[in-house]
Amino acid sequence: MAYFQLIRFKSLNLEPIDLTIAAGECVTLGGPSGCGKSLLLRAIADLDPHEGEASIGECVQSLTAPPEWRRLAGLLSAESYWWADRVRDHLPYSDPDLLASLGFPEVAAEWEVSRLSSGERQRLALARLLLGKPKLLLLDEPTANLDQVSIGRVEHLIKEYLNNGRSAALWVSHDPQQRKRVGERGFQIENGQLVPEIWI
Amino acid sequence: MDLIQLTPLDLSIAALLVLGLGVISWRMHLGVERRLLIAASRSVIQLTLLGLVLKTLFEQSNPILIGVIVLFMLGMAGYEVMARQERRFSGIWGMGIGTFSMFISSFSMTLLALHLVVRVEPWYTPQYLIPLLGMLLGNTMSGMAIALDNLTQGAWQQRGTIEARLMLGHSWDHAIRDLRRRALRSGLIPIINAMAAAGVVSLPGMMTGQILAGSPPLEAAKYQIMILLLIAAGTGLGAIAAVTLGAFRLFDKRQRLRLDRLK
Hints:
The complex is a heterodimer. In chain A, a hairpin with a 6-residue loop joins strand 1 and strand 2 (17-21). By secondary structure, chain A is of the alpha/beta class. In chain A, 28% of the residues lie in helices and 24% in strands. Chain B is mainly alpha-helical. Chain B has 2 domains: 1-60, no CATH class; 63-261, no CATH class. Chain B has helices spanning 8-27, 33-60, 63-83, 92-118, 126-157, 159-167, 172-175, 177-197, 205-212, 217-250. The radius of gyration of chain B is 22 Å and the shape is globular. Chain A binds chain B through residues 45-49, 66-68, 70-71, 74-75, 77, 79-83, 128-129, 132, and chain B through 160-161, 163-172, 178, 252, 254-257.
């Protein structure tokens, strides 16, 4: 069943793409730096001008109000940005269970953003994103700054989020082992084209 | 009391002082004598020309001529607002935002003052229109320029934060709210300071001029108060217009932050 769909979707540096992802499915994306992976995710979240169409379930990108679309297509950028002083001010509501599953105590919501390590920021940015219950996860190197334990937690949490079948994921990762671990299918970007990645 | 006329001799005393400063700068190797003398000559020429233009203008009171001069002043002010931006909007918007906000801040305030406060007949009497407009243009310009510069610089530097909010489903309006507020505040601070210091720290130029020209101090003070209040209102309204338009232009129809519209 086509849950997420790209039709002749053209972002910067890439040829037009047709892609279908089923509900609950996690598709990985690899390729050299600067090949356009992040730009593709940004275009799907409608942060950059692009051509073609995208849809999530019944919602068509060009017919959906931009803020609503971006709540459906939740983008986790490689670097997280924070606008207020405390973590709590960035979270739509508090969810101690979610924080715990990422290895944080409940009091983490009261922490000052400026004191967080880059790894803590990255995990809290994931929490911030998941609390909005996006229907599609666009993950740009979500574990780049994390240690092994945290990587395991993040991968587990995302797989669990997908398993309820009300979401799907497009996961960009530099690590071939991780792509194999988390993805049902994978693509490599070569010369501006999506090429299926073969896992042995 | 009659106006004490300045003779060319009086002016040459002041000019000699500047020349002397130039000589000192040359002897002390300060390296500003060239620029100093050029700037001094410019101000002499420009102000003499202005005096001549205004003399003709006041004698003729020709509405078309007045209109041309007014539009020229407005255009120059709009250009100045744009030229002071480090990252200005490209295309027609760069000049357009500056000119439109200067129109709001100065033109509308001048018209209002001429119709409701000073009540001259006809309203375009150049003796009132041109100096009032000039005062407002000159004094509201920096407020506009600072506010707009803050907005565009801030958007450039905080791109990540603004886009992070967009990614989480905030509307463009919400994502740039903090920045817009800060830009407006910074544009208004100079005039707030000027009002607070008026008469205590500084004797404003217009009042000084009127007193030198023989007006009773209280009359001069009344005019100065009116001008200061008009400048404050004009700066505020103009800065709101500039920042609102600027923030609007920073996003496109799909609420994407479009920094490529700055250059």
